[in-house]
Write a structure and sequence with these properties.
Distance between the termini: 11 Å
Structural class: mainly alpha
Strand order of the largest sheet: 1-2
Length: 139
């Protein structure tokens, strides 16, 4: 059985995906109303669902080689990480655009989920960039 090490790029992708997932539950926006309670929403609305699914898919792609008998997976390629990362980033930016159309974008203390998910996606980008620079494994 030939298992390769996780590596820095994949570790950063895992950490970034976990931070992104942690940012899905807290508030992404808040709309204050007079004489009524404020409205707010999380990342599990609108295009945020795509961010959630892409982060889960990134975790799955990293995990797949360790779930196979020979330690290889055809999905564990830099192109898959780039595609999933781009999908998550585009969906995140679209969701931020949607939010900015009906309320101001909050500061980190007002909209911690949006900022935490954005930080997680930046870590994912860092990990994918590291994966693009690594040498292919030799078997």
């Amino acid at each position: 059985m030939n298992r390769r090490a996780l590596g820095r790029g994949r570790l950063l992708v895992v950490l970034g995906a976990l931070v992104t997932l942690a940012g899905m539950a807290p508030a992404w926006w808040r709309l204050a109303r007079t004489n009524a309670t404020a409205l707010s929403g999380s990342g599990l609305e609108g295009a945020g669902i795509i961010v959630f699914l892409a982060a889960l898919a990134l975790l799955a792609v990293v995990t797949l080689p360790y779930a196979t008998r020979d330690g290889n997976s055809s999905l564990d390629r830099p192109a898959a990480y780039v595609l999933l990362g781009l999908m998550a980033i585009v969906a995140f930016l679209f969701r931020v655009f949607e939010i900015s159309r009906f309320t101001n974008l909050g500061l980190p203390m007002e909209a911690p989920g949006m900022w935490l998910s954005g930080l997680g996606l930046l870590i994912v980008v860092w990990g994918v960039a590291d994966l693009l620079g690594e040498r292919p494994p030799t078997y």
